Amino acid sequence: MLAFLVFVMACVWPRPSQAENPVVQTSYTADPAPLVHKGVVYLYTGHDEDDARDFKMRNWRLYTSTDMSNWTDKGVVASLATFPWAMQDNDAWASQVVERNGKFYLYASVSVQGWPKSVIAVAVADRPEGPFKDALGKPLIDKGIGYFDPTVFVDDDGQAYMYWGNPQLYYVKLNPDMISYSGEIQQAEGRPRNYQEGPWVYKRQGKYYMAYASSCCPEGIGYAMSDKPTGPWVYKGDIMDHNANSTGNHPGIVDYMGGSYVFGFNYRLNFADTPIHRERRSVTVTRFDYNADGTINMLPWWDNVGVAPLKPLSPYERVEAETMAWTSRLKRDRDRPFDWAPGIKTARNDKVGMVVTRITDLSYIKVNGVDFGSKGAARFVANLASEMDGGKIELRLDSVDGPHLGTLTVARTGGLDQWQQQGVPVSGATGVHDLYLIFRGQGGPTMFEFDHWRFERK
Ligand code: FUB
């Protein structure tokens, strides 16, 4: 009897949401560097290539969010080609972008010929989305052993500092131009005993914090505090313990909409794809709190849940197709999804900017916390490009087999560079729900390309 009840409950009970950590599923991402600017979280990441075995990194990507749950892919914002004097085949390692006086400075780890090979470059842009242009035509910090993983912090008095290094911790005072420095490169006083790499410096309530990837391998996340930006740094504990599921764990921390968030990375997507450890990492995020004395308790290892939307998303305004909380592929029609399976990708289109591509049967996009309002939606409209007829976008609420709103059957538009708005009537969409856009049909490598969507009100 009990078994029968459990079976019935499992059939009728709403299924829990599909997981949303890591933050990005369309590329492998690493070395998170979040920046909050004018109400938007700009998440700059390193990029592990899909065919990477060891580190294979050639560019830096950007994702943005206004709810910490749905992320919009803004594409590549800088690459090794931004620094033509650097090695061009690999080593686009950790970076950070900071804003000063309306300009955005990207500090990036790259390498040059010879030994030691690590240097730190700087590029500048007028907008957080770039394009970032090489500021100097040469390294900002010339080569040194372990000279990578820059973090830049601007103090309240306007003095900027850059810290970096593995396993030593160095810093310099940056000049107000943010592309040169004064004085000698210094070794930080009080380098925490388990410091490895990936420093992240910020100030909170008059205290200076340095989070960092703690001794390898696997790395955890440690942190130290100081009364001054130049140290001495006092080790305060671990924000996250070492975990055998990972090798690295490079942190980035921001406050957003009243909460504090730490980003790092795991290998969940890699291990969903292959049992072999490849350097194909995925940026993760979790919320945390400070204790009254400013210390931080140790968090559990990255969960698969991530962050619930901090505010609802309006479906009645244009939503980029590359905005999503999760994407994966169904195993078979009506089956539960894989933990994760490679599916759609994002790419830049000459006419419309970033789009979703490689759309094949049973891949899907999930958008969290969509507020259809009390009257609800009457119609779904998408901007699409297609060489063929018959690809479908099936719209469902809350799970891959949740309430069905309608299905848009895509008509050919005349080519993958010919964009057209196509729509379908929908019903049953009221209130706040997670929205699933499930792609069905035959044809590849992409059935169609998908630029943006919106609903029309009743
Ligand atoms: O991603 C390449 C390197 O691995 C970074 O620069 C380090 O912090 C580690 O995450």
TrEMBL record:
Residues 317-456 form the CBM6 domain. Pfam families: CBM_6, Glyco_hydro_43. GO terms for molecular function: hydrolase activity. Keywords: Carbohydrate metabolism, Glycosidase, Hydrolase, Polysaccharide degradation, Signal, Xylan degradation. Belongs to the glycosyl hydrolase 43 family. This is Glycoside hydrolase family 43 protein. Coiled coil: none annotated. Residues 1-19 form the signal peptide. It comes from Pelomonas parva. It comes from the Bacteria. InterPro entries: CBM6, Cellulose-bd_IV, Galactose-bd-like_sf, Glyco_hydro_43, Glyco_hydro_beta-prop_sf, Glycosyl_Hydrlase_43_Enz.
